[in-house]
Amino acid sequence: MFVRLFAIACALLVWGATPGARPGSAAPGSASLRIVSLNLAMREDIDTIAAELAERQLVPGADLVLLQEVIERDGGSDVASRLAEKTGLHAVFRPAFALDAHRTMGLAVLAREPLEEPHVLPLKRFDLSFRSRHRIALGVAVETPAGRILVYDVHLDTRINIADRVEQLSAVMDDLDASANPVIVGGDFNTNDNRWLFHTVPIPFSSQQRDGLLRFMQGKGFQSAITGHVATHDALGMQLDWIFVRGLDAGATAIQPMAISDHHALATTISRPAPTQSSPGR
Questions:
Q1: Would you say domain 2-271 falls under CATH 3.60.10.10?
Q2: What percent of the chain is predicted at pLDDT more than 70?
């Protein structure tokens, strides 16, 4: 009993209590995985990025890492691939759009196991009047101790309302709906609480986009790793970032502010649901 209590106490110290945290729910003996999602805010100083991720026990301790706003420069490798080299992880990066003549921004997935079937899903493009972006989702498959899992890293538009946000996600839902494999969908969903007029003028605090997103994802069979309304961004307590799972159990979740980004890092454990035990026949 003392050993078990000591182990629980150590786990709590590592994860830290946050308002959006879940208690651990991994079934005894089941394989659990640690998932991290972070918007890198276009940072390129790889030594600083790697140092803070290691200090906060996020990477290389994670089994799966979803990164947004990953920069690739002309004539050089992308930031995620350089981070993977430092941490011994596998990486897949895909560009989304050019920032200028020398920089491209995109999405990346890092994993302890090799990443399979990488593919880009173009998301619906909206004319935002200025700074319109070509948004994508990055899909991969990975064989893990918890089985084969499909993973989607997303970064949605900023100045759109919930109906448009759901429409951008439809490409991801169409891609995964035919699969019976467990699924993770995570990243920067940009679920601000503004209502946008003509994609340019915000009416603050007039729309609960997070609630609309939750209803949509739950309707597709997904569970959020975050409970409650918890800030994932430095500004105005906005909850922009999410990790959703289907066919998996979300366990302990921590949300950590980061010096390297205006977004907070999300870190959660996932596991296969415990098998249902049938009653013995008579």
A1: yes
A2: 82
Q: Following DSSP, what letter does each residue of 57-120 receive, concatenated?
A: T-TTT-SEEEEEEEEEETTS-BHHHHHHHHHT-EEEEEEEEESSSSEEEEEEEEESSPEEEEEE
- Residue 7: burial class (beta carbons within 10 Å; 0-12, 13-18, 19+): exposed
Q: How far is CA 144 from the centre of its chain?
A: 17
Residue pair 94/138 in contact by the 8 Å Cβ criterion: yes
pLDDT (tens digit per residue) in 229-246: 899 999 888 899 999 999
Query: Of 158, 123, 124, 125, which Cα lies nearest the Cα of 139?
Result: 123
Closest Cα partner for 38 from 8, 86, 79?
79
Domain coordinates in residue numbering, the chain? 2-271
HSE at residue 107, side-chain half, CA atoms within 13 A, is 25
Query: Which of 189, 168, 166 is closest to 125 using CA atoms?
Result: 168
Model confidence pTM above 0.70: yes
User: Token pair for residue 104?
Assistant: 């491209």
